[in-house]
Amino acid sequence: MTVSPYAELLGLTFGTDDRGHPLVTMEFAHDLLGRPGFLHGGAIGGMLEMAAWATLRAALGEEQTVIKPINVTIDYMRGGRERTTFAAGEVTRLGGRIANVTAIAWQDDRDRPIAGARLNYLLKR
């Protein structure tokens, strides 16, 4: 997988979880800090967007499709601390022209996300 310059800047790595679903990992780095002791919200938001994109790309398989974001909504639930952060997405609708994806980011416990996102994409097949 070719990683975008933005993903490289955030230090994102792309892999899969134990079920084979896309999983994005962001190791802590001081460049990602916002207020002291906490990750910058933009870094978390960017990570969520990359997780959603990776999930959608995996759902499309080998199909050559241009993916364009229509809308991105991020809900911040708690501050991200100075530790490794994970993110994963789920395609909730995959139509002919529109796709809807959700994504969550967490640190220690997947059941206690630090942020969630809802993304709508236009698909040009």
Describe the structure in your own words.
- The protein is of the alpha+beta class and 125 residues long.
- It has helices spanning 5-10, 41-60; strands spanning 12-16, 22-26, 66-76, 85-94, 98-106, 115-124.
- A 6-stranded antiparallel beta sheet has the order 1-2-4-5-6-3.
- The longest helix has 20 residues, at 41-60.
- The two termini are 20 Å apart.
- The model has no long low-confidence stretch (mean pLDDT 97).
Topology readout:
Blueprint: H1 5-10, E1 12-16, E2 22-26, H2 41-60, E3 66-76, E4 85-94, E5 98-106, E6 115-124
Average per-residue pLDDT, rounded, comes to 97
Helix content: 10-25%
Order of helices and strands: HEEHEEEE
The proportion of strand residues reads 35-45%
Protein traits:
single chain; 125 residues; alpha+beta; six-stranded antiparallel β-sheet; 6 strands; 21% helix
